[in-house]
Design goal:
The chain is an alpha+beta fold. Helices cover about 35% and strands about 35% of the residues.
Amino acid sequence: MLVKILLIVAALVGLFAIFVATRPSEFQVTRSTAMAVSPSVVFPLVNHLREWESWSPWENLDSEMQRTFEGPPAGEGAVYAWVGNSQVGEGRMTIEESRPNELIRMRLEFFKPMAGVSQVEFTFLPVNEQTEVTWNMRGENNFVGKAMCLFMDMDKMCGSQFETGLAQLKARAESVSANGFPKSQT
């Protein structure tokens, strides 16, 4: 009887592993919002990595998060690394491409709680008197990531954070526009 139970459990584990292996490895999360500012106002708030503290949805999840910055303060080569609690983990983002008022492309590396690399892209599209800001993240899941995505929806999980971040970025950009952007950040 015990042998039959073990064989059934082994078969179920095998079937689960086969099912997970057939799941798509790629993921993508995209959110957009319109802001009543020009691209020249909102772009620096993303391009200057120290500005993320004023709008990123993860910045307030750990009051003791340790942040380090390397390279130039903005644009290609700028690096922002963090070490925090279980909600923010540990990671690093590096701006790989920066086209003023159009595009910022980053490499996002997570070390904890789960290692992974994603590509992040912000685009800034002028539409009438507003700017359509799009935040996109894409990457690939390994076997463990594919298994986790059976129980967690990456789009819902990260998408809600992107929505919060874009709302906070919009509030910050529109406030900066009303008050004037600090000369050191332009």
